[in-house]
Amino acid sequence: MPVKVPASLPARGTLEAENVFLMEEPRALQQDIRPLRIAILNLMPTKIATETQLLRLLGNTPLQVEVTLLHTASHEAKNTPAEHLLEHYVSFAEVRDQTFDGLIVTGAPVETLPFEAVDYWPELAELLDWARTNVFSSLFICWGAQAALHRYYGVPKHPLAEKLFGVFPHRTLARHERIVQGFDDVFFAPHSRHTETRREDILAEPRLELLAESDEAGVYLIQSADRRQVFVTGHSEYDPGTLQGEYARDLGKGLPIGIPKNYFPGDDPTREPLVRWRGHANLLFANWLNYFVYQEAPFDLGLLPVEGRQA
After folding, report:
1. DSSP code, position 265
2. 192 is in an annotated binding site
3. What is the CATH number of the domain that holds 27?
4. Which of 209, 237, 246, 280 is catalytic?
5. Is residue 258 a part of any domain in this protein?
6. What pLDDT digit, counting tens, does each position of 224-270 carry?
7. Which among 64, 136, 203, 292 is least buried, having the fewest CB atoms inside 10 angstroms?
8. How far is CA 139 from CA 16, 51, 143, 201, 210, in A?
Protein backbone atom coordinates (compact mmCIF):
# COMPACT_ATOMS: atom_id res chain seq x y z
CA MET A 1 0.00 0.00 0.00
CA PRO A 2 1.42 3.39 -0.84
CA VAL A 3 1.34 5.26 2.45
CA LYS A 4 1.60 9.04 2.26
CA VAL A 5 4.19 10.14 4.78
CA PRO A 6 6.23 13.36 4.93
CA ALA A 7 9.87 13.12 3.96
CA SER A 8 10.92 14.35 7.40
CA LEU A 9 9.22 11.55 9.36
CA PRO A 10 11.94 9.34 10.96
CA ALA A 11 10.01 6.19 10.01
CA ARG A 12 10.47 7.00 6.33
CA GLY A 13 14.13 6.01 6.14
CA THR A 14 13.55 2.75 7.99
CA LEU A 15 10.61 1.77 5.81
CA GLU A 16 12.31 2.74 2.56
CA ALA A 17 15.24 0.50 3.50
CA GLU A 18 12.71 -2.35 3.89
CA ASN A 19 11.17 -1.58 0.47
CA VAL A 20 7.83 -0.61 2.01
CA PHE A 21 5.89 1.33 -0.64
CA LEU A 22 5.79 4.97 0.46
CA MET A 23 4.47 7.92 -1.51
CA GLU A 24 5.20 11.62 -1.30
CA GLU A 25 2.30 14.03 -1.51
CA PRO A 26 3.01 15.44 -5.04
CA ARG A 27 2.83 11.94 -6.54
CA ALA A 28 -0.24 11.04 -4.49
CA LEU A 29 -2.08 14.10 -5.79
CA GLN A 30 -1.56 12.90 -9.36
CA GLN A 31 -3.55 9.72 -8.70
CA ASP A 32 -7.26 10.06 -9.44
CA ILE A 33 -8.42 8.18 -6.34
CA ARG A 34 -9.51 9.05 -2.83
CA PRO A 35 -6.97 7.76 -0.30
CA LEU A 36 -8.19 6.07 2.85
CA ARG A 37 -7.97 8.53 5.72
CA ILE A 38 -6.57 6.72 8.77
CA ALA A 39 -6.03 8.46 12.11
CA ILE A 40 -3.58 6.90 14.57
CA LEU A 41 -3.80 7.88 18.23
CA ASN A 42 -0.31 6.94 19.41
CA LEU A 43 -0.35 6.51 23.20
CA MET A 44 2.92 4.61 23.41
CA PRO A 45 5.91 6.37 25.02
CA THR A 46 8.14 5.13 22.18
CA LYS A 47 6.14 7.02 19.57
CA ILE A 48 8.68 6.91 16.74
CA ALA A 49 9.11 3.13 17.04
CA THR A 50 5.34 2.60 17.22
CA GLU A 51 4.52 4.80 14.25
CA THR A 52 7.15 2.92 12.23
CA GLN A 53 5.62 -0.45 13.20
CA LEU A 54 2.10 0.62 12.23
CA LEU A 55 3.10 2.33 8.98
CA ARG A 56 4.97 -0.83 7.99
CA LEU A 57 1.76 -2.86 8.32
CA LEU A 58 -0.42 -0.24 6.65
CA GLY A 59 1.95 -0.33 3.68
CA ASN A 60 1.26 -3.94 2.74
CA THR A 61 -1.85 -3.74 0.52
CA PRO A 62 -2.47 -2.02 -2.86
CA LEU A 63 -4.46 0.91 -1.46
CA GLN A 64 -3.45 4.50 -0.90
CA VAL A 65 -3.51 5.58 2.72
CA GLU A 66 -3.25 9.05 4.19
CA VAL A 67 -2.22 8.91 7.83
CA THR A 68 -2.91 11.53 10.49
CA LEU A 69 -0.88 11.04 13.68
CA LEU A 70 -2.65 12.10 16.87
CA HIS A 71 -1.35 12.72 20.38
CA THR A 72 -3.10 13.64 23.60
CA ALA A 73 -2.89 17.32 24.43
CA SER A 74 -3.63 16.60 28.10
CA HIS A 75 -0.48 14.50 28.58
CA GLU A 76 3.11 15.61 28.12
CA ALA A 77 5.19 13.02 26.27
CA LYS A 78 8.52 12.45 28.05
CA ASN A 79 10.20 10.05 25.61
CA THR A 80 9.53 11.81 22.29
CA PRO A 81 11.13 15.12 21.29
CA ALA A 82 8.64 17.98 21.39
CA GLU A 83 9.85 19.02 17.94
CA HIS A 84 8.77 15.66 16.52
CA LEU A 85 5.28 16.03 17.96
CA LEU A 86 4.95 19.61 16.74
CA GLU A 87 6.04 18.71 13.22
CA HIS A 88 4.23 15.39 12.71
CA TYR A 89 1.35 15.15 15.19
CA VAL A 90 -1.88 17.00 15.79
CA SER A 91 -4.20 16.96 18.78
CA PHE A 92 -7.72 15.60 18.86
CA ALA A 93 -9.05 19.15 19.10
CA GLU A 94 -7.53 19.87 15.67
CA VAL A 95 -9.43 17.04 13.93
CA ARG A 96 -12.66 17.11 15.94
CA ASP A 97 -14.61 18.42 12.94
CA GLN A 98 -13.10 15.93 10.48
CA THR A 99 -14.14 12.44 9.40
CA PHE A 100 -11.94 9.39 8.85
CA ASP A 101 -12.26 6.00 7.19
CA GLY A 102 -10.35 4.35 10.01
CA LEU A 103 -8.92 4.94 13.47
CA ILE A 104 -6.16 3.02 15.27
CA VAL A 105 -5.67 3.47 19.02
CA THR A 106 -2.46 1.97 20.36
CA GLY A 107 -1.64 0.47 23.71
CA ALA A 108 -0.23 2.48 26.61
CA PRO A 109 1.82 1.65 29.75
CA VAL A 110 -0.98 2.65 32.13
CA GLU A 111 -2.91 -0.60 32.41
CA THR A 112 -2.42 -1.04 36.17
CA LEU A 113 -4.25 2.24 36.79
CA PRO A 114 -8.04 2.50 36.88
CA PHE A 115 -9.18 4.00 33.57
CA GLU A 116 -10.44 7.19 35.21
CA ALA A 117 -7.08 7.66 37.01
CA VAL A 118 -5.19 8.05 33.71
CA ASP A 119 -4.42 11.74 33.30
CA TYR A 120 -5.66 11.90 29.71
CA TRP A 121 -8.76 9.73 30.25
CA PRO A 122 -11.31 12.59 29.78
CA GLU A 123 -9.70 13.46 26.42
CA LEU A 124 -9.56 9.80 25.35
CA ALA A 125 -13.17 9.19 26.40
CA GLU A 126 -14.24 12.18 24.32
CA LEU A 127 -12.28 10.87 21.32
CA LEU A 128 -13.85 7.42 21.67
CA ASP A 129 -17.32 8.97 21.72
CA TRP A 130 -16.40 11.11 18.70
CA ALA A 131 -15.27 8.00 16.82
CA ARG A 132 -18.84 6.66 16.89
CA THR A 133 -19.95 9.45 14.55
CA ASN A 134 -16.78 10.52 12.73
CA VAL A 135 -14.94 7.25 12.00
CA PHE A 136 -16.18 4.32 9.92
CA SER A 137 -14.02 1.55 11.43
CA SER A 138 -11.79 1.49 14.51
CA LEU A 139 -8.96 -0.86 15.49
CA PHE A 140 -7.95 -0.88 19.16
CA ILE A 141 -4.71 -2.44 20.42
CA CYS A 142 -3.87 -3.82 23.91
CA TRP A 143 -4.70 -1.13 26.52
CA GLY A 144 -6.44 0.83 23.76
CA ALA A 145 -8.70 -2.21 23.31
CA GLN A 146 -9.35 -2.44 27.05
CA ALA A 147 -10.16 1.27 27.22
CA ALA A 148 -12.59 1.10 24.29
CA LEU A 149 -14.29 -2.05 25.61
CA HIS A 150 -14.75 -0.29 28.95
CA ARG A 151 -16.06 2.94 27.41
CA TYR A 152 -18.40 1.37 24.87
CA TYR A 153 -19.58 -1.79 26.64
CA GLY A 154 -18.62 -1.54 30.30
CA VAL A 155 -16.25 -4.52 29.99
CA PRO A 156 -13.75 -4.50 32.90
CA LYS A 157 -10.07 -5.32 32.89
CA HIS A 158 -8.68 -7.67 35.55
CA PRO A 159 -5.19 -7.75 37.10
CA LEU A 160 -2.94 -10.74 36.42
CA ALA A 161 -0.85 -12.42 39.08
CA GLU A 162 2.23 -11.77 36.94
CA LYS A 163 2.98 -10.05 33.67
CA LEU A 164 1.86 -11.92 30.55
CA PHE A 165 5.00 -11.66 28.48
CA GLY A 166 6.02 -13.49 25.33
CA VAL A 167 4.71 -14.91 22.06
CA PHE A 168 1.73 -17.23 22.34
CA PRO A 169 -0.22 -19.57 20.04
CA HIS A 170 -3.86 -18.67 19.30
CA ARG A 171 -6.76 -20.37 17.54
CA THR A 172 -9.57 -18.93 15.47
CA LEU A 173 -13.12 -19.43 16.72
CA ALA A 174 -15.17 -18.03 13.81
CA ARG A 175 -13.63 -18.83 10.44
CA HIS A 176 -16.52 -17.29 8.50
CA GLU A 177 -15.61 -13.79 9.67
CA ARG A 178 -13.67 -11.64 7.23
CA ILE A 179 -11.20 -10.24 9.74
CA VAL A 180 -9.77 -13.77 10.18
CA GLN A 181 -9.74 -14.70 6.48
CA GLY A 182 -6.56 -16.64 5.72
CA PHE A 183 -5.53 -17.14 9.35
CA ASP A 184 -3.68 -20.38 10.08
CA ASP A 185 -5.27 -22.98 12.35
CA VAL A 186 -2.75 -21.86 14.96
CA PHE A 187 -1.14 -18.42 14.72
CA PHE A 188 1.25 -16.57 17.00
CA ALA A 189 1.14 -13.07 18.47
CA PRO A 190 3.15 -11.22 21.13
CA HIS A 191 1.65 -10.07 24.44
CA SER A 192 3.07 -7.74 27.07
CA ARG A 193 0.57 -6.75 29.77
CA HIS A 194 -0.33 -6.91 33.46
CA THR A 195 -4.11 -7.10 33.01
CA GLU A 196 -6.57 -9.15 31.01
CA THR A 197 -9.98 -9.08 29.36
CA ARG A 198 -11.90 -12.18 30.41
CA ARG A 199 -13.76 -14.52 28.12
CA GLU A 200 -16.93 -14.56 30.21
CA ASP A 201 -17.20 -10.78 30.09
CA ILE A 202 -17.10 -10.80 26.29
CA LEU A 203 -19.54 -13.68 25.92
CA ALA A 204 -21.97 -11.92 28.28
CA GLU A 205 -22.18 -8.92 25.93
CA PRO A 206 -24.40 -9.70 22.89
CA ARG A 207 -22.97 -6.76 20.95
CA LEU A 208 -19.53 -8.38 20.91
CA GLU A 209 -18.14 -11.51 19.26
CA LEU A 210 -15.03 -13.38 20.35
CA LEU A 211 -13.05 -14.41 17.26
CA ALA A 212 -9.73 -15.77 18.55
CA GLU A 213 -8.17 -16.78 21.84
CA SER A 214 -5.22 -18.55 23.43
CA ASP A 215 -5.14 -21.20 26.15
CA GLU A 216 -2.38 -19.29 27.91
CA ALA A 217 -2.87 -15.67 26.80
CA GLY A 218 -6.67 -15.70 26.87
CA VAL A 219 -8.92 -13.47 24.78
CA TYR A 220 -7.14 -12.08 21.70
CA LEU A 221 -9.47 -10.85 18.94
CA ILE A 222 -12.97 -9.37 19.35
CA GLN A 223 -15.28 -7.52 17.00
CA SER A 224 -18.49 -5.58 17.50
CA ALA A 225 -21.72 -7.04 16.13
CA ASP A 226 -21.85 -4.37 13.42
CA ARG A 227 -18.20 -5.14 12.52
CA ARG A 228 -17.24 -1.50 12.92
CA GLN A 229 -14.91 -2.05 15.88
CA VAL A 230 -12.02 -4.53 16.20
CA PHE A 231 -10.25 -5.14 19.51
CA VAL A 232 -6.82 -6.84 19.70
CA THR A 233 -5.41 -7.61 23.15
CA GLY A 234 -1.87 -8.36 21.93
CA HIS A 235 0.82 -6.58 19.95
CA SER A 236 1.00 -8.12 16.49
CA GLU A 237 2.66 -4.89 15.31
CA TYR A 238 5.78 -5.44 17.45
CA ASP A 239 9.21 -5.52 15.82
CA PRO A 240 11.40 -8.62 16.25
CA GLY A 241 13.37 -6.94 19.04
CA THR A 242 10.59 -5.14 20.92
CA LEU A 243 10.08 -7.78 23.63
CA GLN A 244 13.85 -8.13 23.92
CA GLY A 245 14.11 -4.39 24.59
CA GLU A 246 11.33 -4.51 27.19
CA TYR A 247 13.03 -7.45 28.92
CA ALA A 248 16.36 -5.62 29.11
CA ARG A 249 14.64 -2.43 30.30
CA ASP A 250 12.81 -4.16 33.15
CA LEU A 251 15.94 -6.07 34.19
CA GLY A 252 17.83 -2.80 34.25
CA LYS A 253 15.21 -1.25 36.52
CA GLY A 254 15.27 -4.23 38.85
CA LEU A 255 11.64 -5.05 38.11
CA PRO A 256 10.31 -8.61 38.45
CA ILE A 257 10.33 -9.94 34.90
CA GLY A 258 10.66 -13.42 33.46
CA ILE A 259 12.18 -14.36 30.12
CA PRO A 260 9.53 -13.75 27.45
CA LYS A 261 7.92 -17.10 26.63
CA ASN A 262 8.32 -18.77 23.23
CA TYR A 263 10.60 -15.93 22.08
CA PHE A 264 14.31 -16.70 22.49
CA PRO A 265 15.41 -20.07 21.07
CA GLY A 266 15.90 -22.38 24.03
CA ASP A 267 14.84 -19.50 26.32
CA ASP A 268 18.38 -18.19 25.93
CA PRO A 269 18.35 -14.35 26.01
CA THR A 270 21.79 -14.24 24.36
CA ARG A 271 20.30 -15.65 21.13
CA GLU A 272 18.37 -13.75 18.48
CA PRO A 273 14.58 -13.86 18.98
CA LEU A 274 12.54 -16.19 16.77
CA VAL A 275 9.91 -14.20 14.83
CA ARG A 276 6.70 -16.20 14.31
CA TRP A 277 4.04 -13.50 14.13
CA ARG A 278 4.99 -11.38 11.11
CA GLY A 279 2.67 -13.18 8.66
CA HIS A 280 -0.27 -12.94 11.05
CA ALA A 281 0.33 -9.24 11.67
CA ASN A 282 0.34 -8.40 7.97
CA LEU A 283 -2.82 -10.43 7.35
CA LEU A 284 -4.68 -8.91 10.31
CA PHE A 285 -4.02 -5.35 9.19
CA ALA A 286 -4.64 -6.14 5.51
CA ASN A 287 -8.00 -7.75 6.34
CA TRP A 288 -9.03 -4.79 8.48
CA LEU A 289 -8.10 -2.25 5.82
CA ASN A 290 -9.71 -4.21 2.99
CA TYR A 291 -12.87 -5.72 4.47
CA PHE A 292 -13.65 -3.31 7.28
CA VAL A 293 -12.52 0.00 5.78
CA TYR A 294 -12.03 0.05 2.00
CA GLN A 295 -14.91 -2.26 1.04
CA GLU A 296 -17.43 -0.70 3.42
CA ALA A 297 -16.71 2.98 4.06
CA PRO A 298 -18.70 5.41 1.88
CA PHE A 299 -16.78 7.39 -0.74
CA ASP A 300 -18.23 10.55 0.79
CA LEU A 301 -17.24 10.47 4.44
CA GLY A 302 -19.99 12.97 5.14
CA LEU A 303 -22.39 10.04 4.71
CA LEU A 304 -21.00 7.84 7.45
CA PRO A 305 -23.85 5.49 8.48
CA VAL A 306 -23.18 5.74 12.21
CA GLU A 307 -25.29 6.49 15.21
CA GLY A 308 -25.69 10.20 15.76
CA ARG A 309 -24.95 11.28 12.19
CA GLN A 310 -27.67 12.07 9.69
CA ALA A 311 -27.13 10.68 6.18
Report:
1. G
2. yes
3. 3.40.50.880
4. 237
5. no
6. 999 999 999 999 999 999 999 999 999 999 988 999 999 999 999 99
7. 203
8. 25, 15, 12, 19, 15
